[in-house]
Amino acid sequence: METSELRFAYLRGHEKPKALLREAVANNKMGHAYLFRGPDGVGKKRAALTLGAYVNCKKPLEDDGCGRCPSCRKYFSGSHPDLIIVEPDGAAIKIGQIRELKRQLAFPPLEARVRLIILEDIQSMRREAANSLLKTLEEPDPADLFILTADPAGTILSTILSRCQIIPFGPLDYEDMAQLLMQEDDMEESLALSLAAASEGSLGRAKLLQQENLLSLRQEVVEGLLHGHLDQAESIALIFRLSEKTAALKENTSEFLALLRQWYRDLVLITAGGPETAIVNKDLALSLQAAARQTSFTGLYEKLNRLDLAERQLKRNCSRTLVLETLFFDLI
What we know:
The protein is α/β, with parallel strands linked by helices. It contains 15 helices and five strands. It has a five-stranded parallel β-sheet, with helices on both faces.
């Protein structure tokens, strides 16, 4: 990605958020704190960095940063001295991180007109950390711009919400996302479109699915476990093999189970006579049609319930391999 791409003109999708932020800058009506709320991996952090680069650009265009001045280049590389990014430490943003942030904010910006502070995934923030941050948001320094990011469903303190302007981010358009994947990862259009659909418009998730080769494993499970006409010994061997491969995904096992859930959702849709345009697994259309002729609503709901149970067990840190073996025996 070239430096010039850290501009609103190169930020795919999110037309309404971009228009709102550009208008705020143009009319000198920037808020002191924003909450970018939307699915993981759709570009919330990139949008925050793009806004920071724009407001501090040395040679701004009419409604965008130039992307090439020293300030823009530092934002692009993540090396700007007045850029602070706070990420969850493990599973949560902790009070020690907020105390360190407040220590840094006690000093004025080194070179930027506006210091940018990005706090990621604040739905993970512990209550004591959120309460510690609250006073800073109530009495901000005019030179500080806070951008908080969160998923759509996470719980956030109402006192935090009330002090932020909320900017909603939706999933990326599948065509736009496929173009990005083709440009950035040099992949074929058919694969890019499959990843865009399977990830439900999340670029970050699409890249994870590709990196972990999850679409191939999904196909192997679908064509073997769900459609295989095997004798008992072959079925048992297949289940153990697929369970071992899936368990090796470790923390990404839940992503694979989400792909299986999409498969069953598509089967429900086809069985109900729903529109083909709503199918996610278009690359497995023939397998879907074959499976739909051999299944029933009752059977599909039972399998979806088994997936729910497996996901709950994995969250309770049950044996990953044992959970998957039991699940696959129930799905066969």
